[in-house]
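batch_manifest entry 22 of 60
target: Phosphatase
source organism: Actinacidiphila rubida
requested by: lab member K.T.
priority: normal
notes from requester: please return tokens only, no post-processing; we will run our own comparison against the previous entry in this batch. if the run fails, retry once and flag.
--- input ---
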Amino acid sequence: MPLDSAPAASPSRQDLADHLVRTRIAGDVATSRENNLDHYRALAEGDRYYWLGLDFGGRWSDASAVLDVMVERCGVVADPQHRTGQDTIDAELTVDALDRMAEVLRKAAGNRSRVLVASGHPAGMFAVHQVLAAALEAAGCTVAGPVDGLYADNGEVRQVAGVFMLHRGGGLVHTHSPEPMRKVLDALERAGEPLPDVVIADHGWAGHAGSRGIETVGFADCNDPALFVGEAEGDIEVSVPLDDNVAPHLYAPLTAYLLTRAGLPVPTP
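--- output ---
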């Protein structure tokens, strides 16, 4: 059965890497080199939109240093003179990061930890997050939420299938903002509930959680350098490099691999 279909069992490491390249989750991804470099420059210039809720002070004011991190942790083209056209994510780095994330999930399941799952990519990464939330809950973890009556960025914070997302205008929306996560964590504290032990998220949801000192693992595209810089600084435990907006079913082999490595059951498609 081709890996582009949802598998009932985990692929091997090599089969997963091949699948990631074939589906452009890694390899020659859709994000252009121009877009990547623009975002690295914006982070270095202090544009907080690109900090995703983390605080870098003046420590990353050199865009070339940001590029170096992205080469090391994401696998973008190393040549600083490569300014236009194709950019890349190294599939081997993606799988390496999945292995590290799996260890965090394994520990969370073993400790029956309190976890919080959130996504700013409802059309793509929700397919991964909701399976992880269900698997961890089945393993005995407590999945934080729901929290009613929260609003951020002219929208409502909602939880669907264990995953916090932002709702606006009748639909779930793509957001980079850290504000929804801020609202959720503040609401938990006001209610006297413990903050999560582990957060699984992306974009500003992950960045803000990491800034609060919560053990945070996340997924990030090659044009979102903040989570990789945050990982380099120790605020983010793991950032998995991937194209975060391909067709949802294409992530199924990645999710199966991650669950298997974490010792969690893979759902039957």
